[in-house]
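FW: tagging you since you asked about this chain on Friday. Here's the raw sequence from the shared folder, copied in full. Didn't touch anything.
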Amino acid sequence: MKIAVVILNWNGKKLLEQFLPSVVENSPEVTVYVADNASTDDSVQFINKAFPTVKIIQNKENGGYAKGYNDALKKIKADIFCLLNNDVEVTKHWLSPVLETFAKEPKTAIIQPKLLDYNNRTHFEYAGAAGGFIDKYGYPYCRGRIFNSIEEDKGQYNDVTEIFWASGACLFIRSVVYNKLNGLDESFFAHMEEIDLCWRAKNLGFRIKYVGASKVYHLGGATLNEQNPKKTFLNFRNSLFTLTKNAKGFLLGLIFIRLVLDGIAGLKFLLEFKPQHTFSIIKAHFGFYSHLKHLLVQRKQTRDKIKYYQKTSVVFDYFVNKKTNYNSL
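HL: got it, structure written out here
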């Protein structure tokens, strides 16, 4: 199988200096691309000079994560796309276990490796840890991470197992499936678009796997850190987008309960003296309602909707029952 490792970049020269060497060094059997989202720094010049074997695709605008990848991947021919953040350090032989799984399992369409914290290397990383799930109301959690509780990697997830969503920090996908899904939903711009992509793949009967023998280290927060109100806005709004498009069941009831739960989250931010994040949640709901007509059209196009959750409310389990790791759920 021909694999293309594609790194999306926007004004990330410093990150490329730090992380691109590990990708080039540990991926001799594949073609490495940098898809540049119209950077205004000298990222492109740096790559051309320091890494002449890396191919560059220059997008015309910064359309965010979703559009950036959609535009770039149209220009790449490969059996497998690896969507890799520019703040990820890969390890020796990181590709072999993933390719072996794809070869053995034709119905497996998407794979995520073990995602560890670059700055705290004994622990999992927030953005995907050991594979993702969502609860009935669309709140994501991971094996190895529930909300802000991060587990230490003690080998408890050194397995190959089916998951619900794979992290966009390092996501492998068969190109035929990516094209069948028409790529990432560009209305998301950034954050949670990978959950939507995986959910749509699941609704078509494809499998998503976590492969623990493949290991990478993710810096995280390089574009928007968790203290940024814009990240709060995108996460809350895009979660509602994903739920509306793909969830099986009585949608009005789900959205009403989300409204209540998000309101509690907004109150929590207010009590923590973070009013900007409270406003971001309010703004996220108005942003969601303004897109509702289009989202309902997309919902009708998804005929076969699977049961998507294992837990009814990870919020209740975490904040009320004090269950802070995946195996306690």
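FW: The two ends are 38 Å apart (CA to CA).
HL: agreed, and Residues 3-218 form a domain with the Spore Coat Polysaccharide Biosynthesis Protein SpsA; Chain A fold (CATH 3.90.550.10).
FW: great, closing this out.
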